[in-house]
Design a protein that fits this description.
The complex is a heterotrimer of chains A (about 40), B (about 500) and C (about 180).
Chain A: H1 10-35, E1 39-40
Chain B: E1 5-7, E2 14-16, H1 17-48, H2 57-90, H3 99-121, H4 139-168, H5 178-209, H6 217-251, H7 258-272, H8 288-323, H9 332-335, H10 342-365, H11 379-408, H12 415-440, H13 464-497
Antiparallel strand pairs in B: 1-2
Chain C: H1 17-43, E1 51-54, H2 57-71, E2 82-83, E3 86-89, E4 94-101, E5 104-106, E6 108-111, E7 117-123, E8 128-133, E9 137-141, E10 145-152, E11 157-163, E12 175-180
Parallel strand pairs in C: 3-6, 4-7, 6-12
Antiparallel strand pairs in C: 1-10, 2-3, 4-5, 7-10, 8-9, 8-11, 11-12
Classes of the chains: A mainly alpha (about 40), B mainly alpha (about 500), C alpha+beta (about 180).
């Protein structure tokens, strides 16, 4: 359905991009932690 | 059993007596198991809090096994049976098909859960929820689980029979409601999951009886997780149905796009079932290519579905609020939301906790290489307490505040406590899960009575930060247990002595 | 409303722009998450190994005993040294056996930093979790499977092998040790 401009879920957009930033940040942080372990393969 | 209907004064839905009774029985039983699991949680928490270390080792492992069964299996699946009956018979204005079978569901599940619980309590099944072979439990443990699973299969059959009958008798026209669609996704996943449960538990039962000489432990692990993780996907699908339901009940939300939401549910059915190898990422027995294909392609398409719901659930609430005139700025809709309605606050905790804590960590921990620093540490239970407790359980708790007046037709007792309950429980669980994942980062193992190595050949230390975080985890857990007790108090007293709503 | 029958032809409604943009981002994310795993295998050195063999627990048990006899650290009397009741072994780079059993990791290993070892990890009874602390690396020891991990210690010090897969009531007493110098 097409929404009127003032009904657009802008707050949800803001929240979901904040969520996305958290996801990327924690993802990178974990790879960084992984580099610290011994070489294994 | 003849179909007798009444009309719900709030929603205008036709409510049939058999469906209503079965919803009540399943819901009450689930809360009984929540109470059991919650008491166990308290004892386990006070043991893992190294400074208190309450239980002796054998009791710790025994009760941890029962905690998993009571919470992850009994509380959740009984409640899901209530959700299935609600989403079929009630939402489609029809009668519950084959009510005898539905009673069979209830009876088998109660007997099965009781057999398994008793076997654990008498010390015959110290094997943990996962019961990895060749660690062997008494055969009655597996038998109880099989009965429970057969009961659940009957419940799913009743659900589909009811859908079929409603279609045949034309009690609705067009497509089923979104909540029912989500429940269908949950039920399809449930059938496939329970089939895997049969494949894994029937031979294990025969093995415990001595009929089959041995089981391959890696094959067991693969099949167990095809059952065990998929069970959690039933929860996810049921939980998200409850999110849409709560959005509608609390602020009158309408899905922004039916197509978007339904496609996401369909992705769950197609992919989430197969993606269970992320439990075996640091195992022998499976090639790297297979692990990556399984967790990458299949799991991430399911992750995509969750990300779609993560947008469309809050968007539905926001649009509904904006249509009421709360259009100022980015967040007026959120500020003016019914925060005093425990259904709404539960919804918010559930969505945020599932997404930010459970979802993000799930994606990370399920990555092949990252699993090296995650596998079997406290990061894992930290993750699934965020998904299953903050996510699924809080969604179910939120639904309860509506089920009580609509189905039980009683006024919610202690409205003040009910109003506070999601905040207490949610905050406690947020602290608990976050701290648990944090200490897991130090490498502290899960399912471990003593992490200091006091009785081991070598002492083990994780450092003062980890010890402090364990204490924070314990405090968070205690707060959550208070919140859980508040929920049980409100639910049980309402059902038992709440004022009847007359029409 | 999500609890009522949707309007007719709901599947023909086009998606709004906000949904389309998020869908594109989410889909891209899923693809990147998937490709990250093979990418790491090609470019980096921390990967769960793919090499494993089926082996009878008895055979693995005997192989570990032979390994301990061959490379055990001997005292003056010629007996193999023990620590915490567990044989101590100082193997050259190459094949190393780590045996999990209720409730003991054996042997105690003395390894050299920067050398590559082929660690054969298995169990002779139930599942065990091979968890090297505090470096925090975790692998599964499965009876019947010889899991070969090519490990190069990159830090030196004293490391514990904690069992982190529940293996019975004595689970928490199952601690082994690795020395790296």
């Amino acid at each position: 359905m097409s929404l009127k401009e003032e009904h657009r879920p802008l707050g949800t957009n803001a929240l979901i991009y904040f969520f996305f930033a958290c996801l990327v940040a924690f993802y990178l942080l974990n790879w960084k932690e992984l580099i610290g372990v011994w070489n294994v393969g | 059993m003849e179909a007798v209907f009444r009309t719900c004064p709030v929603t205008g839905l036709k409510v049939e007596r058999n469906a209503e009774t079965l919803i009540m029985f399943n819901a009450v039983t689930s809360i009984v198991f929540l109470l059991v699991g919650g008491l166990l949680a308290l004892l386990l928490l006070l043991t893992r809090w190294q400074a208190v270390h309450l239980l002796p080792a054998d009791f710790f492992y025994r009760l941890l096994t029962l905690h998993g069964i009571a919470m992850l299996v009994a509380w959740i699946v009984f409640f899901e049976m209530a959700v299935l009956y609600f989403a079929s018979a009630i939402l489609l204005n029809t009668r519950l098909s084959v009510p005898y079978l539905a009673w069979g569901q209830y009876g088998l599940m109660v007997v099965g859960a009781a057999i398994t619980a008793v076997t654990i309590l008498v010390g015959q099944a110290d094997v943990m929820f996962t019961s990895y072979v060749p660690l062997k439990a008494h055969h009655m443990y597996y038998f109880g689980i099989i009965l429970f699973a057969v009961g659940a299969i009957l419940g799913v059959c009743v659900f589909f029979a009811t859908l079929g009958a409603a279609r045949h008798e034309k009690t609705y026209v067009g497509s089923v409601p979104l909540v029912t669609f989500g429940a269908i996704a949950a039920a399809i996943i449930a059938l496939l999951t329970l089939a895997h449960g049969a494949i894994v538990f029937i031979p294990t039962w025969l093995w415990a009886l001595g009929v089959i000489p041995m089981m391959d432990p890696e094959v067991y692990r693969l099949l167990f997780w095809a059952f065990g993780h998929s069970t959690q996907q039933i929860n996810v699908a049921a939980m998200i149905s409850c999110w849409y339901l709560l959005g509608t009940l609390t602020v009158g939300s309408v899905p922004v796009s039916e197509k978007f939401s339904r496609s996401a549910f369909t992705l769950y059915i197609l992919f989430i079932m197969i993606a269970s190898e992320h439990h075996l990422l640091v195992d022998p027995g499976i090639s790297t290519a297979h692990k990556e294909w399984n967790t990458g392609y299949f799991m991430h398409l399911a992750v995509l579905a969750s990300m779609m719901h993560a947008f469309s659930v809050p968007a539905a609430v926001e649009v509904a609020q904006r249509k009421k005139g709360y259009t100022k700025g980015l967040f007026e809709w959120l500020k003016r939301a019914p925060w005093g309605d425990p259904g709404f606050s539960s919804l918010v905790f559930s969505v945020v906790g599932f997404g930010f804590l459970g979802g993000i960590t799930g994606v990370i921990y399920g990555t092949e290489q990252l699993n090296i620093i995650v596998h079997n540490t406290l990061r894992v239970p930290g993750h699934f307490h965020a998904t299953v407790v903050i996510g699924t359980s809080m969604a179910f708790m939120g639904i309860t505040y509506y089920v009580l007046p609509l189905i039980f037709r009683r006024e919610v007792m202690f409205p003040g406590i009910a109003k506070l309950q999601p905040y207490v429980f949610g905050t406690g669980m947020f602290v608990f899960s976050t701290a648990m994942m944090f200490v897991g980062g130090f490498g502290i193992p899960r399912r471990d009575w003593d992490i200091t190595g006091a009785e081991a050949p070598f002492p083990v230390a994780y450092g003062p930060t980890a010890d402090l975080a364990l204490a924070v985890m314990a405090v968070g857990g205690l707060v959550a247990i208070v919140g859980g007790a508040m929920y049980i108090l409100v639910a049980v007293s309402t059902v038992a002595i709440g004022k009847k709503i007359n029409r | 409303m999500s609890i009522f029958i949707p309007e007719k032809h709901w599947w023909r409604d086009p998606l709004d722009k906000d949904e389309k943009v998020w869908l594109a981002i989410a889909l891209t994310t899923s693809i990147v998450l998937t490709l990250a795993m093979p990418y790491w295998h090609v470019t980096q050195k921390q990967n769960p190994g793919s090499e494993y063999y089926k082996i009878k627990p008895d055979t693995f048990d005997a192989a570990t005993d032979r390994f301990i006899q061959q490379y055990g650290v001997k005292d003056e009397a010629g007996a193999i040294k023990q620590e915490g009741g567990i044989d101590v072994v100082a193997p050259p780079p190459g094949d190393v056996f780590v045996r999990g059993q209720q409730f003991k990791w054996s042997p105690v290993l003395k390894l050299k930093k920067g050398s590559e070892y082929r660690i054969h990890l298995s169990s002779i009874d139930v599942l065990h979790g091979f968890s090297v602390q505090p470096i925090n690396m975790n692998f599964e020891a499965v009876p019947g499977y010889d899991y070969v991990l090519k490990v190069t210690p990159t830090t030196s010090g004293v490391f514990n092998i904690v069992c982190n897969e529940f293996c019975g009531i004595g689970h928490h007493t199952m601690v082994g040790r690795i020395y790296v110098d």
